[in-house]
C-alpha cells in the first residue's frame, strides 16, 4: 500500500518561495509517474508538474520557469520548489503517484494521492 504525505505549505507574500515535500511509504519504483496537482476553492483540479521514468518532466504553462519538480528515489521523496509565487498560485497542493507512464493530462486522477498541503500567497 502506498501512502503519500505532503509538507511544506504555508503562507508567503507574492514573489516569495516555498518548497513542498512529499514523503512516500510503500514501494514506488523509479519508473513510476509522480507529480503535483492543485485545487483552489471553487475551481477544478489543475496539473502542476510531473516527473516520470528517465526523469522526463512536464510543467503546466502557468508555472513553467517558476516551479521545479524533483525526486529523490533513494529516500522516496518528491519535491516541488516554487519561486516567484503569485496570488493565483494559492491552492491546496496534492502529491500523486501511479505505476506506469506519465500522461500529464491524467495527473489529477492517478491512483494514489496525499491529503494535500495548503499554499497561500498574499498580495
What does this structure look like?
- The protein is mainly β and 123 residues long.
- It contains no helices and eleven strands.
- The protein has strands at residues 3-7, 10-13, 18-25, 33-39, 46-51, 57-59, 67-72, 77-82, 91-98, 112-113, 117-122.
- Strands 2, 4, 5, 6, 9, 10 and 11 form a seven-stranded mixed beta sheet that branches. Strands 1-3-8-7 form a four-stranded antiparallel beta sheet, with no helix packed on it.
- It is globular.
- It starts with a strand and ends with a strand.
- The model has no long low-confidence stretch (mean pLDDT 95).
Number of helices: 0
List the secondary-structure elements in sequence, H or E: EEEEEEEEEEE
Q: Major sheet, described briefly?
A: 7 strands, mixed
Rg, rounded, reads 13 Å
DSSP strand count:
11
Portion of residues in helices?
A: under 10%
For the termini, the CA-CA separation is: 40 Å
Low-confidence parts, pLDDT < 50 over ≥5 residues?
none
Strand-pairing-aware structural class: mainly beta
Strand content: over 45%
- Specify the overall morphology: globular
* Mean pLDDT rating: 95
Amino acid at each position: 500500500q502506498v501512502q503519500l504525505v505532503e509538507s511544506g505549505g504555508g503562507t508567503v507574500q507574492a514573489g516569495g518561495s516555498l518548497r513542498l515535500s512529499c514523503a512516500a511509504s510503500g514501494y514506488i519504483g523509479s519508473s513510476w509517474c509522480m507529480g503535483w496537482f492543485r485545487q483552489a476553492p471553487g475551481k477544478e483540479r489543475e496539473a502542476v508538474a510531473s516527473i516520470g521514468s528517465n526523469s522526463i518532466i512536464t510543467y503546466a504553462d502557468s508555472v513553467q520557469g517558476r516551479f521545479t519538480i524533483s525526486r529523490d528515489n533513494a529516500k522516496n521523496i518528491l519535491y516541488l520548489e516554487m519561486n516567484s509565487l503569485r496570488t493565483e498560485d494559492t491552492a491546496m497542493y496534492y502529491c500523486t503517484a501511479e505505476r506506469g507512464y506519465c500522461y500529464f493530462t491524467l495527473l489529477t486522477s492517478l491512483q494514489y494521492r496525499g491529503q494535500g498541503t495548503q499554499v497561500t500567497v498574499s498580495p
